[in-house]
Amino acid sequence: GNIAGIAIAVVLGGPGAIFWMWVIALIGAATGFIESTLAQIYKEPIAKGGFYGGPAYYIRYGLNNKALSVLFAILISITYGWIYNSVQ
């Protein structure tokens, strides 16, 4: 689990392993913050009171690249539909 994994990393890699865990955690937090911010900026309201949005929307409208947003949607569908299921 989380405690054993950190203990093994410190034993095998030394105390520098904790530093790199923090660095990766900060990068992951920054990525999550940016994705959440872009999702709020590029969401579109719908008539029923909800919103449409997500990565494909901010790729399409933020980068002005429809082909890349379609490619993202196709690849994420393949990944969640087949690849993740094959791991189980």
Total strand count, please? Answer: 2
Helix content: over 70%
**What percent strand?**
under 5%
Strand order of the largest sheet: 1-2
Derived structural class:
mainly alpha
Describe this structure in words.
This protein is mostly helical. It has 2 domains: 1-33, no CATH class; 42-88, no CATH class. 77% of the residues lie in helices and 5% in strands. Strands 1-2 form a two-stranded antiparallel ribbon. Helix 2 crosses helix 3 (55-62). The longest helix has 26 residues, at 16-41. The protein is elongated and about 55 Å long. The chain starts with a helix and ends with a helix. The mean pLDDT is 91.
List the helices and strands and how they pair.
Blueprint: H1 2-13, H2 16-41, E1 44-45, E2 51-52, H3 55-62, H4 66-87
Antiparallel strand pairs: 1-2
Helix pairs in contact: 2-3, 3-4
